[in-house]
Amino acid sequence: MSLTGAAPAPVRDLAQRKSDVLDTLARDSHLWLATGGPSGTHMVPLGCAWDGGHVVMATHERHRTARNLRADPRARAAYGTPADVILVDGPVEVLSPGELPAGFAPPSGLPLDPARVPGCVYLRLTPRRILAWRHRGEIPGRTLMENGRWLA
């Protein structure tokens, strides 16, 4: 039972959770990004877009997030609410508009566009681990991706 007295939703299998995660990645335009640096953990809300294989964000080059990622590319992105959690762990590339790799097409819909805003950079997170759960019953099977490979 939940605090409201309602029974929790049934436990989703891995395939359904993967489908729900991909829907959220494609739909949601904001996340929380956590990085680490000399002054400790740093977490900020950022606009984002899913390009089908990466989470793409943008920020100003001078901000702590970009500085932290240049020193240590590991990050965690968080989507959702405490009742519907998605965590995406992986390395993040910091890319200025002039150094985009071949094949990188910046997704449309980013609230901050480095191609038009001087001093801004793209952040491209490659998922290596994804966790997702909606309630206590889904916590034991919360890992959907490990080492960059979907488990479902």
Automatic annotation (TrEMBL):
Tell me the InterPro entries matching this sequence. Answer: Pyridox_Oxase_N, Split_barrel_FMN-bd
Q: Which residues form the Pyridoxamine 5'-phosphate oxidase N-terminal domain?
A: 26-133
Q: Which residues form the signal peptide?
A: none
Protein origin, superkingdom: Bacteria
Q: Which Pfam families match?
A: PNPOx_N (PF01243)
Any idea what this protein is called? Pyridoxamine 5'-phosphate oxidase family protein
